[in-house]
Amino acid sequence: MNSNKYVIDQQNVRYKWRTIPWRKLEKFVFKLQKRIYQAAKCNDIKKVHKLQRLLLNSMSAKLLAVRKVTQDNRGKKTAGIDGKANLNQEERLQLAYSLDIREKAKPSRRIWIPKPGKTEKRPLGIPTISERAKETLMRMAIEPEWEAKFEPNTYGFRPGRSCHDAIEAIFIALGGKTAFILDADISGCFDQIDQNALLKKLNTTPTFRKIIRGWLKAGVMEDGKFKPTKRGTIQGGTISPLLACVALYGLEQYVKQVLTNELFQFMKKKRGQGSYEEAKQSISVIFYADDFVIIHESEEIILKAKVLVEEWLKTIGLELKPSKARITHTLKGEKPGFDFLGFRVRQYPINHGKRSHKTIITPSRESMKQHTYTIKHKLRKLRGESQEAVIKHINPIIRGWCQYYTSVVSCKAFGLLDHIMFGKLWKWAVYKHHNKGKRWIKEKYFKKYGNDNWRFMTSNGVNLTRHGDYVIKGHIKVKGTKSPYDGDWVYWGNRLKKVPDKPARMINLLKLQQGKCDYCQLWFKNDDILEVHHKDQNKKNNITKNLSLLHGHCHDNLHRKCA
Question: In terms of DSSP H, where are the helices of 498-547?
Answer without folding.
Answer: 504-512
